[in-house]
Amino acid sequence: MVARTPQPGPAPADSPDMPLPRPLRWYAATSLALVATYLAWPQDWRIVPFLLVTVGAVPAVLAATLRTPRDAPLLWRTLLVALVCFNAGNLVWIYHVYVAGRVTGDGTAADGLFALAGVLLLVAAVAVVVRRGRRDVGGIIDAAVVALGFGGVLWSTVLLPQLAEAGAPMTRQLALFVHVYVLLATLGAMARVALVAGRTVIALHLFVVALAFAVGGHLAVTFATDPVTGVRPDWTNMLFMASYAALGCAALHPSARLITQPGPAPVDDLSTGRLVFLGATIALIPLIGGGRVVFGLPTDGVLIALGSAAVIPLVMIRIARLSGQRRRAEQALVRAATHDALTGLPNRAACLDRLTADLAVPGPGQPAGLAVLFCDLDGFKPVNDRLGHAAGDTLLTAVAGRLRACTRSVDLVARFGGDEFVIVLHDADPVTAAAVLCDRIRDVVLRPYAVDGEQVCVGLSVGVAYAGPDTTADEVIGRADLAMYAAKQSKAIGALSLATA
Q1: Which residues 6+ apart lie within 8 Å of 501 measured at CB?
Q2: Is the pLDDT of residue 325 over 80?
Q3: Count of C-beta atoms within a 10 Å radius of residue 486
Q4: Last residue of a domain, one of 270, 305, 333
Q5: Which among 26, 124, 133, 491 is least surrounded, fewest beta carbons within 10 Å?
Q6: 97 and 104 in contact (C-beta within 8 Å)?
Q7: What spatial distance separates the first Cα and last Cα of the chain, rounded to whole Å?
Q8: In 389-472, which residue ranges form alpha helices assigned H by DSSP?
Q9: Main-chain dihedrals φ then ψ at residue 411, nearest 5 degrees
Q10: 85 and 129 share one domain
Q11: Residue 372: beta bridge partners?
């Protein structure tokens, strides 16, 4: 006999060994060629490669939208609308520059369309964070705070002086302000998702590259624009074209489907170092802005105030989330200390605490109106030995569920240990109530159980004890335990025996 060597399966979509699909190769090669040769085209014809790249990203994102599962279409649909807005803004800009004969298209409706497209990019990034980052709200808040901090510094020290020197109108300043802040926040959010993705998702990294080129393009436009004529060099368009090309490649890459798949849950730990870093970035905006005022340098108080004010609700949300996480962690610790991990019932310690509190309510010399049923399974050990501990755990969980179904909401069902359960019931006539409960247990708990593909039956020995004047929890539990052992001596497996102390 000749042994066959197993053939390797197909490489994952994000594997470097995965051959790139032909549409992606053609799109990438064409886009990169147009970007690289952009300046080689005659100046009057450069609008052609620019539009080919910017408009060409639309069908690429449309293809990603069509092949994305219906339960996760928000990312690519939002990006598709953003690209339409970007291209509409480009057309408005081209009309004002090439048709209307204006020196620049700035200050027109193009700025509003670009701002709207930037907001849609942020929405798309949030969609990625929600899907891929498993609702990493803490991470995206931190990214937004950092972006606002560094964006404020960039605006105050670099962009605003340049715009003031060029005499840019307020509408232009506001549009660029939104661009910088939104794009930086988007870039920060996407970078965080890429860092905590748990694996290299090439499409996600291409998305981050596209955003980085977009930020670089806006910065280049601000620095390279002639302050007198308002004309900017054509090479700045290459950065925007590279951004469109990277986004189209991300949409066509096979790993694009992984962007909207849930990734590993990031650890939302606000460590001391991280807290100090966030605090420093929050302080950057007022410190830099105030410093420029002290030294008599131009500053935009309104926009800086808006940026600073945006930090406040983010910090409040962050604090509220951390407070909620701490509260839930404390509740989880309390539950782990007071509940049985297997059945979810209160454990021995919680049972004794509850019983002690209940016995203390009536007061000395008063009837308690309380009965304790100590239940022990008969025939559990043979099932556990024959089918295994996992099957035994399944049986215990099923018994616990049936016992809980037999009782009222005011009664307590606890796992006392091993295959022992304690029921504490309150009633004005505890003797009658205990008898009725035992009848329900006989009808429900003793039915066969489906365990590990088999039908198994177990019996139940029940000892009942009633609380009297000045009875302690240990006393009534001890009497119920003795009654249970007395009941166990007088029955056969598969039935229910009852003894009263």
Answers
A1: 463, 464, 465, 466, 479, 480, 482, 483
A2: no
A3: 16
A4: 333
A5: 26
A6: yes
A7: 74
A8: 389-406, 430-444
A9: -85, 160
A10: yes
A11: 424, 465
- 309 and 354 together in one domain: no
Residue type, 216: G
Structural contact between residues 460 and 484, judged by C-beta atoms closer than 8 angstroms: no
3-state secondary structure of 226: coil
Report DSSP state, residue 293: H
461 forms bridges with which residues in the sheet?
376, 497
The residue range of the domain holding 277 is 22-333
Same domain? 193 vs 281: yes
Q: Are 128 and 150 in contact (CB under 8 A)?
A: no
Phi and psi at 428, nearest 5°, equal: -65, -30
Neighbours of 474 (CB within 10 A): 11
* CA distances for 120 relative to 33, 168, 296, 414, angstroms: 28, 25, 37, 53
Residue 271 identity? S
Contact 368/471 with Cβ under 8 angstroms?
yes
Q: Which of 180, 166, 65 is nearest to 114 (CA)?
A: 180
> Hey, is 198 helix, strand or coil?
coil
Q: Are residues 201 and 285 in the same domain?
A: yes
Helices 137-154 and 301-338, packing angle to 10 deg: 160
Choose among 403, 157, 179, 493: nearest CA to 304. Answer: 157
Which amino acid, 384? N
Q: Work out the average pLDDT over 476-485.
A: 90
pLDDT tens per residue across span 45-94: 988 999 999 999 999 998 888 877 665 557 788 888 989 998 898 888 88
Query: For residue 94, with 0-12 CB atoms within 10 Å meaning exposed, 13-18 middle and 19 or more buried, which class applies?
Result: middle
Same domain, 72 and 170: yes
